[in-house]
Specification:
Layout: H1 4-13, E1 19-20, H2 21-27, H3 33-41, E2 45-47, E3 50-51, E4 58-59, E5 66-68, E6 71-72, E7 81-86, H4 103-107, E8 115-117, E9 125-131, H5 134-141, E10 149-156, H6 161-169, E11 172-174, E12 177-179, E13 183-189, E14 193-200, H7 207-214, E15 219-227, E16 230-231, E17 240-242, H8 245-254
Parallel strand pairs: 9-15
Antiparallel strand pairs: 1-4, 2-3, 2-5, 5-6, 7-9, 7-17, 8-9, 10-14, 10-15, 11-12, 13-14, 15-16
Helix pairs in contact: 2-3
């Protein structure tokens, strides 16, 4: 005989308002859908008092009680998205066992469920977007949407226009495959250094440093200034600002929402 919850689950799956459980958790601010899927399979989620570990489960959040680690979740249509200026020597994480400075040290405890959309390496600076909207985060970080990112890069050596054009037209081959820049513009040069504006949509780890290092121009400073339509603007290092509704809408549109 089917378990009573199995019958209830089937009924809700047939309801027009039923959605996947991991999507509901993401909308409630528990992280990306992937992170929420792990929470489900780890046995941390209950629906109407029953433990749920099946990823295909659909629920109606307006009619069913959903709990994570015993606490009932509450959906809100109001989300917050932040533009943070990460300084060097700050970890792109919310906590660190080694006691290093993290993004949490910058935003404080006022945004309990906010998490970062992507990372910058420890020695890089600039724009990191943070949100409590799991759906938005999932799209911003998904390679499918190829959201462009802009960097101001300072490298050792003089890079001529021919090299900049080659990085866009031909690219370079790295250990994990070929990669091309979307744009590469020389902004300034001295005898020993070059400053460039670089645009690319790849999210590979340390990709900008690896590209220039592979052709003999080590990066000495890297600052991300823009992600999609969102610009860092006048936010000082170690500070952040709350994005306006218009900015969030433009970001959502850029990633297919």
């Amino acid at each position: 005989m089917p378990h009573p919850y199995s019958r209830a689950k089937k009924a809700h799956q047939e309801s027009e308002s039923a959605v996947r459980l991991q999507k509901v958790l993401a909308q409630a601010g528990f992280g990306s859908r992937r992170k929420c899927e792990i929470m489900i399979t780890d046995g941390r989620v209950e629906v109407d008092g029953e433990l749920v570990t099946e990823l295909g489960t659909r629920v109606d959040p307006k009619k069913q009680e959903i709990r994570v680690d015993g606490s009932r979740i509450r959906l809100s249509n109001k989300h917050v998205t932040l533009a943070l200026n990460k300084p060097k020597k700050v970890l792109s994480a919310m906590d660190d066992k080694k006691g290093r400075w993290t993004l949490r040290d910058i935003i404080g405890d006022g945004y309990e469920r906010v998490f970062h959309m992507g990372r910058l390496d420890y020695d890089s600076e600039g724009l990191i977007l943070m949100t409590d909207d799991g759906e938005l985060s999932q799209h911003v970080m998904h390679p499918r949407y190829e959201i462009p990112k802009t960097y101001i890069v300072t490298v050792e050596g003089r890079i001529g226009g021919n090299i900049a054009r080659r990085l866009v037209k031909t690219g370079v081959q790295l250990d994990d495959g070929w990669i091309k820049l979307d744009q590469c513009t020389v902004l300034d040069q001295s005898r020993d250094f070059s400053m460039l504006r670089v645009v690319l949509h790849s999210g590979r780890n340390r990709i900008v440093r690896r590209i220039f290092g592979s052709i003999g121009f080590p990066v000495v400073r890297l600052v991300r200034t823009q992600i999609g339509p969102i610009k860092l603007g006048e936010v000082k290092p170690g500070s952040y600002r709350v994005l306006s509704k218009a900015e969030v809408d433009s970001l959502a549109k850029a990633v297919g929402l």
